[in-house]
Amino acid sequence: MKAQKWSQMWLGYHRVSKDNKNWKVICNDFSKEDRVVNSAIAEFAKGIKGYFGAGITEDDGDVYVLEIIKDTSIANEGYSIKGEKSGVTLRASDENGVIYGVFAILRKLGARIRLEDICEKAAPSNPLRMMNHWDNMDGSIERGYSGESFFFENDDMYVDERTVDYARFMASVGINGIVINNVNVKGAATYLITDRFFDKVKELQDIFADYGIKLYLSINFAAPIELGGLEVCDPLDEGVIAWWQAKSKEVFEKLPGFGGYLVKADSEGRPGPFTYGRTQADGANMLADAVAPYGGIIIWRCFVYNCTQDWRDYKTDRARAGYDYFKDFDGEYHDNVILQIKNGPMDFQIREPISPLLGGLTKTNQLLEVQIAQEYTGHQIDLCYLIPMFKEVLDFRTYCSEENDTVADIVSGRTMGNKLAGMAAVINTGNDFNWTGNDLAAANLYGFGRLAYNTELSSEEIAREWVALTFDMDKASEDKLTDMLLKSREIYEKYTSPLGIGWMVTPHVHYGPSVDGYEYSRWGTYHRADHKGIGVDRSDKGTGYAQQYYEPNASAYNDPEKCPEELLLFFHHIPYTWKLKSGQTLIQYIYDSHFEGEAEAEQLAADWNSLKDVVDSEVFARVAERFELQVANAKEWRDQVNSYFFRKSDIADEKGRKIY
Ligand code: GCW
């Protein structure tokens, strides 16, 4: 019998010890009445009840003490926690620091760390740590693989206990900003900034505020036309400017503490400044000025490219687009504009180079956008722990300056000394019982938050924490599951598209193979395979994309001999007979990696089956079902990719395996 309506993911607080001595909470300089402090203490109560069967008491006597002290020497939203036999002291300079400190204590207690061994000082790496929902108001979720929206249904909004739990999960990993609606703003969603929805948005905003989270909305750039009855939405038109100013005044009055707008303009059919011969900077700055009086910000997406390309055209390169559209206006974006840049120049593929716009801009606020919704990485059916990929992105040296030049430096604000900086993820949640479709996909949800708060954490540390908090199992089983997570991205990459070329997915759906699915389409996503080789020439002899990087990256990417092999086909058209560093030819690598990837997917499924006795039976069954689908998917990929390239190249597999 299922008592709960939804799972508690990593906040299950399973019993770790029998020491059920009660706790007294003392607050110095923070008020227990403060909404965030109040939530923190309530959470602490939940935690110690679950972990120890203990409670919070006002009595002295034989109790542990959690003492919360205001300490202005601690960084914004940071904390310091120090335990001793009699309890724990938590220091913070603000309320978010208090709640993050409490969650940190609970993480330690959950990992069975003794009170006297608790000692941690933390400050967020990134000022903005955001989730982007692609939830539509009819309840559907664009690229959602975990059920329907838990905010919207039938063009209306809902707030309930589940929303509160959602806010708890987000605060527990340090998220401080959430955009609740899809960046493709149409129909009813355009009205989220009107009286029709203000009351409900405010209700949701209040719940978020209890957990130190600011609410943001995606807006429709054509709102002046659709809501205001204006003829145009030209960002330099006086009427349009006045409309956005009045609208923003209203929004911030109705929603005190509101964060600002997220904007997808001139992208995939969305309206934008280009219609009027204006620039992206014109659009962003006009909105920024409208929200500036209220401390609001404009998050402007850089996912702008020509999506009506002709596959015959070898000059136009989608990868170039972000840099080409945004770089020239570096320094012209207003202070409260932040450009949101996808990690790669294409679109959340399993392997892409890092977007050259990150660090290409040196005078502009930048927010890194990643996707934990597994649109191109297995739909939360296939296991694909993405934190190792995000670490690669963060660690990438852009060479934009002599020091502090990694993506982590840029998006944290260290490179330029700016305050408006951070990371955002397209979220992978929905109203499924377990929130993320595949129970194991919650590792990406947890992991993104933890990483955005502390970019120094390793993929393994994060995986271990998540496993320990989520499951109640022995050390050997924890090791096994952690290992499965850590290998999973590489396995997925092996059985799907090779060496950075990307795509080859079933069009529109984006799950399962279709090697030529997008080859003759308008989307600019080609692999250019012929009977001699495969890959896109993006060197100076091709589209010139490699030149968008600083040296030495530009030269390395430009030269197939120096190009990192995992990106070889992204940057170069390579013959099947090309020798890789391993000594394998390219075609043999394609065969080998696909056979290996499929075999390793089967091994993952077997590893999961070996955990049957230590995992809750419902969780076990849900995940096992997904591994079966993953194995079938991996087989399909293996056989379609291998057959396709065998037929193109007419070169046999050296190992004589079955190719169709
Ligand atoms: O990759 C594409 C997705 C679209 C998405 C778009 C974007 C929200 O297929 O579904 O639209 O990216 O990032 O705007």
TrEMBL record:
InterPro entries for the chain: A-glucoronidase_C_sf, GH, Glyco_hydro_67_aGlcAse, Glyco_hydro_67_C, Glyco_hydro_67_cat, Hex-like_dom2
Residues covered by the Glycosyl hydrolase family 67 C-terminal domain: 436-657
Keywords for the protein's UniProt record, in alphabetical order: Hydrolase
One GO biological process term: xylan catabolic process
Database matches in SUPFAM superfamilies: (Trans)glycosidases, beta-N-acetylhexosaminidase-like domain
Signal peptide positions (record): none
GO terms of molecular function: alpha-glucuronidase activity; xylan alpha-1,2-glucuronosidase activity
One GO CC term on file: extracellular region
Glycosyl hydrolase family 67 catalytic domain ranges (all copies): 115-435
Keyword Transmembrane helix included in the entry's annotation: no
Protein name as it appears in the record: Alpha-glucuronidase
Native source organism of the sequence: Butyrivibrio hungatei
